[in-house]
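TICKET: design request
STATUS: open
ATTACHED STRUCTURE:
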C-alpha cells in the first residue's frame, strides 16, 4: 500500500485535519481492496498497525472503510448512471475516491454535501491522475442531488 502514498509525499500538506487523514487512509484501504481483492478486516487491521500515520480520526476511518466496502455493490449501482464508462474501467484511484464519496454522501448526512465533494476532489488531486479530480467532481456533483435533494435544493 505504500506505493500509493509514497509517490505523493511531496504534495502532502504538513498539517492535515484528523478527519481528512482518515479519509486518505480509507481511500488507501479501498484502493488496496480493489487491487488485491483482500479481506476488509485484514486491510483495516494492517492500516491501523502502520507506523507514522500521523493524527487521524480512527473511528471515522473505520466507519468509512467498512461502510464503503460492505455497501460497494449498492454504491457502484448508485454511481453507474453518472459514469462515462463501465465502473471496471475506472482507474483504481478514481474508483476508490468515487466509492468513498458516494458512501459519505449517502450515509453521513451530518457532513455537508459540498464538504464531501471538496474532500473527494482533494483526494483525487493528491492521489489521482492529472484531471481525475475534474471527473470526480463532475460525477459526485451529479450524484449529490439524487441522494441529498433537500440539502442541494436549499442551496
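STATUS: resolved
RESOLUTION: sequence designed for all positions
ATTACHED SEQUENCE:
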Amino acid at each position: 500500500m505504500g506505493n500509493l502514498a509514497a509517490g505523493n509525499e511531496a504534495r502532502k500538506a504538513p498539517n492535515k485535519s484528523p478527519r481528512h487523514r482518515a479519509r486518505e487512509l480509507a481511500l488507501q484501504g479501498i484502493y488496496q481492496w480493489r487491487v488485491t481483492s483482500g479481506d476488509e478486516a485484514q486491510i483495516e487491521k494492517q492500516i491501523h498497525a502502520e507506523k507514522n500515520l500521523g493524527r487521524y480520526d480512527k473511528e471515522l476511518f473505520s466507519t468509512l472503510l467498512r461502510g464503503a466496502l460492505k455497501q460497494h455493490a449498492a454504491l457502484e449501482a448508485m454511481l453507474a448512471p453518472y459514469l462515462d464508462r463501465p465502473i471496471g474501467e475506472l482507474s483504481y484511484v478514481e474508483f476508490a475516491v468515487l466509492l468513498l464519496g458516494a458512501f459519505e454522501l449517502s450515509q453521513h448526512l451530518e457532513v455537508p454535501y459540498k464538504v464531501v465533494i471538496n474532500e473527494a476532489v482533494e483526494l483525487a488531486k493528491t492521489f489521482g491522475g492529472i484531471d481525475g479530480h475534474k471527473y470526480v467532481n463532475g460525477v459526485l456533483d451529479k450524484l449529490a442531488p439524487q441522494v441529498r435533494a433537500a440539502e442541494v435544493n436549499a442551496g
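CLOSING REMARK: Residues 13-154 form a domain with the N-utilizing Substance Protein B Homolog; Chain A fold (CATH 1.10.940.10). The chain has one domain: 13-154.
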